[in-house]
Amino acid sequence: MRGFSAVAALGFALLLSSCTAGGEASCSPPVSGSVGSNPLVPGIFTADPAVLVHDCIVYITAGHDEGTDDFLLKDWYVLASDDLVSWTDNGGPVLGVDVFEWADANAWASQMVERDGHFYWYVPVRKIDGTMAIGVAVADSPLGPFEDAIGAPLIDDPLEMEAFGYEHDYETVYTIDPTVLVDDDRAWLIYGGFGRMITVELGADMISMAGDLAESTPEKFFEAPYLTKRGDTYYLIYAAEINPATIDYATADSPTGPWTRRGRIMEALPRHPGEDHATSHPAVFEYAGEWYLAYHLSNGEGGGTYRRQVALEKLFFNEDGSIEPIAPSGGLTF
Known about the structure:
The protein is mainly beta. The protein has helices at residues 9-15, 157-164, and strands at residues 46-54, 57-65, 73-81, 95-96, 103-105, 111-115, 118-127, 132-139, 147-148, 179-183, 186-191, 198-202, 214-215, 221-230, 233-240, 246-252, 260-266, 283-287, 290-297, 309-315. The chain is globular and about 55 Å long.
C-alpha cells in the first residue's frame, strides 16, 4: 500500500505536501494497472459505509456487523487507503456505543466529517429508554480517540416532538442514518428512514443546530440518505422503496431541496439463499478527480444479510449531471 499502515497513517498524511484537507482533486491517482478487490477487507464484516477524504487518505467509516439472524452492531471501524487498492482496518473498531453513556446499542449507519481541524462523527444509537437518537463524537484525528461531544443526544424524540408539535413519539421520523455536508461556511445534517427524511442546518460548532428541523423527502426514499455536492448541484443518494432496496438519487439547487429524483444507480443487491432481503447503503466521494460509490455486499464469502462487507465501484457522471447505472463487480481496475 505504498508504505501505508495503520500505525503510520497520520505520519504518512503529513508527507503528502501537495494535498490539503478535502483536496480530493490534488491527490495522486491510483497506480495505472493496479487492481482492487471487493469486498475491500474480506476478513471482517462491515456495513453502512460513509467516506471522508482527508490529506489524500480515504477513510471509510462502517458499522461492525456481528449478527447471525438479526442486526447486531456495537461499534464502528475506520477502513483506510491511500491508493483505493490496499486497505487497512486500523487494528479494530475505532468508536463504540459505550462512548455514549446515555446509549446502549445499535451502532448503525454513521458519517464522519472534518471542520476546522476537528473530526465530528455523527452516529445513530439506541438510547437507554429504547428510542433512537443521533449523537456526536469528536476527535483531533480520524482515528481517534473519540469522546462524546455533547454528553447527550443531538437529536431525539423529545426534540422532534417539540419541533413539529407531535403529541406522540411514534409520530416522529425514524431517527437513523445521519449524513452531513460541510458546504463552504455552512454545514447541513440530513437523516431519517422508513420513507421520511429531515434536514437541518448545523451551528458553526457542529454540535448544535442553527436552523429548524424540516421534512423534505425525495421520491421513492426509504432510508440511508447520503448528501454530497458536485459543482453547484446537490446530490442525495439513498436506498429506495423497501428492502431489497435499490440505490437511487435525486438532485437539488439547495441542501434543503426540493429534491428531484433523477434515476437509479444500482439495482437491488443479491443475498445468500434462505436469508432475509439484502439492505443497501450508499456513499459517494471524489478522489484524484474521479468519483466512486461505496456500498455494502450481503452475499460475500462467509457473509450475509447481517454480516455485510464494504465494496467500491467507479461512478460516472454524464454531461447533464445524471449518473450512469452501475453493477457490483469483483473489484476495481485502474
